[in-house]
Amino acid sequence: MKFKNKIVHIILILFCLLFILPLLMIFSGSFENQSQLTENLEPVFKSVNSESKARWYVIPMYPTLKSYVEILFDSPEFFIMFWNSCKLVFPILLGQLIVNTPAAWGFARYDFKWKNTLFTLYIVLMLMPFQSTMVSNYIVLNYLKLLNTRSGIIFPAIFSTLSVFIMYRFFKGIPKTVIEAARMDGAGEFQIFVTIGIPMGAPGIASAMVLGFLEYWSMIEQPLAFLEDKTLWPLSLYTPDITPELTGVYLVSSVIILIPTLLIFLTGQKYLEKGIQASGLKE
Amino acid sequence: MKMLLKKSRKNQNYIYRNSKKESLTGWMFILPSLAGVSIFYLIPFADVVRRSVTEGMGVRFVGLRNYITVLENEAFLLASANTIKFMLLCIPLLLIFSLLFGVIIKSLNGKAGIYKTAFLVPLAVPVASIVLMWRFLFHENGFFSMLAVSILGNPIDFMNTDLAVYVLIISYLWKNTGYDMILWIAGLSGIPSSLYEAASVDGAGRFKQFFYITLPNLRGMLFIIFILSVINSFKVFREAYLIGGNYPHTSMYMLQHLFNNWFVALDIEKLCAGAVIISIATSALIIFFRNSIQGGK
């Protein structure tokens, strides 16, 4: 039995390494000397099969911070894109917080006519791929003169229904007795939402926010379709024309793109897991 | 159930007086969201449906002509075929792969936090970060090609041949295994342990237990995970776009590429009919999944 357990752990460790290996290599590559990188990676920039093959050292041969210095001081466009991402992601999350939290509460705690129909509609919308909402988005953004503006990305994203669904699951779990007790004490409905709903549903709100951050930080479809002006493009669309001589800078940029999501992920993993579970609960 | 509901209503009534007030409060809470959803999704979608049966300017009724144009469009057929082929290959693989690791990690009884983290990490990696890495792995002069040389004797170009779709499949598995695994573990936790205890008293081995207890009990979960995996499979366009640009190798050409290209050409007729077709296909899948759950219960 003990021996069997060890084998399970070894297999798991091997697979886990496989899953995080690309990440480790990006990190190690970002500290590699540029001339070494050029030599290692030049073969994958040739269009024909060459004699020399690409290499990637897990531990840098000549560790240096030169590429970091270069991107921090010599690439203003990279930072413009970084701020562009922030200017999209944070308004979206703030908007979702303001609009979708009460909506989830309304669906979870009150009975009203059409509620079930509406909620089913919300679920259908949450499951629709971007292809099926792309033209409708275009038509309304065109009508509201929001094409090619940040608001044109932000508003449709705020009203995406996935976060309503996730928070709904958590609000639903608050015991009825707590709320009825507050009602007996004479608390108003809005007061109950603020003083009981939000604190007790906080894990659900956090889950929706973590999932939302990961989603919107790497969104590609919407800005690609609706932002013609490249100076508005977020970091997720950063694809410089990589040449072998620029691989160092590119790898550093990869690390910088990655850091915010990795930090959110590592601090919010518990909520991420809860959010994923909530997205899978049947209705 | 109905009795219980009636009872709780009765209890509420002396605080609440009438359900009209309750219904009004409920509407107040969802109103901002509902207004936004209507403005940005529902009303324009209704307009899309209308435009899908009219001429470009949205005036003259043309029946199903736009739909026929789309369904006869070669690019649409190619992109649909690729998308469906991709789903048929990658979704079963993902479901089995993630279930396998879900079962193993669940059996470690909570001493598996670090493994969960490792499987979930890819979810946090933006596609833009891994483009160079993917090139290193899949290029003709790259890692997997070298592996092929040592096993098969000749290099393989994954990026510019029919094998390009496998690059997407590996990306998809890499990215989504953790997500599905968490869902499977949630499903596994919902199976009462008394079932397993009873089975082992009856002398059922591990494999028997898996096939006669675990799998049947995961049935409801399976359809949910299936749907979420379908939804996430549409997002593989991100990898395809950043690796191959607007016109990648034909085996990687997905519906989203086609929509983007129609969009650039502002081909509203095709876009509208295409959007309605995709929506109907997705809804059909959802209805199928809801019925399957009810049928499975």
Automatic annotation (TrEMBL), chain A:
<feature type="transmembrane region" description="Helical">
    <location>
        <begin position="247"/>
        <end position="266"/>
    </location>
</feature>
<protein>
    <submittedName>
        <fullName>Carbohydrate ABC transporter permease</fullName>
    </submittedName>
</protein>
<feature type="transmembrane region" description="Helical">
    <location>
        <begin position="119"/>
        <end position="141"/>
    </location>
</feature>
<feature type="domain" description="ABC transmembrane type-1">
    <location>
        <begin position="82"/>
        <end position="268"/>
    </location>
</feature>
<dbReference type="InterPro" id="IPR000515">
    <property type="entry name" value="MetI-like"/>
</dbReference>
<feature type="transmembrane region" description="Helical">
    <location>
        <begin position="88"/>
        <end position="107"/>
    </location>
</feature>
<feature type="transmembrane region" description="Helical">
    <location>
        <begin position="192"/>
        <end position="214"/>
    </location>
</feature>
<keyword id="KW-0472">Membrane</keyword>
<comment type="similarity">
    <text>Belongs to the binding-protein-dependent transport system permease family.</text>
</comment>
<keyword id="KW-0812">Transmembrane</keyword>
<dbReference type="GO" id="GO:0005886">
    <property type="term" value="C:plasma membrane"/>
</dbReference>
<feature type="transmembrane region" description="Helical">
    <location>
        <begin position="7"/>
        <end position="27"/>
    </location>
</feature>
<feature type="transmembrane region" description="Helical">
    <location>
        <begin position="153"/>
        <end position="171"/>
    </location>
</feature>
<dbReference type="Pfam" id="PF00528">
    <property type="entry name" value="BPD_transp_1"/>
</dbReference>
<keyword id="KW-1133">Transmembrane helix</keyword>
<dbReference type="GO" id="GO:0055085">
    <property type="term" value="P:transmembrane transport"/>
</dbReference>
<dbReference type="InterPro" id="IPR035906">
    <property type="entry name" value="MetI-like_sf"/>
</dbReference>
<keyword id="KW-1003">Cell membrane</keyword>
<keyword id="KW-0813">Transport</keyword>
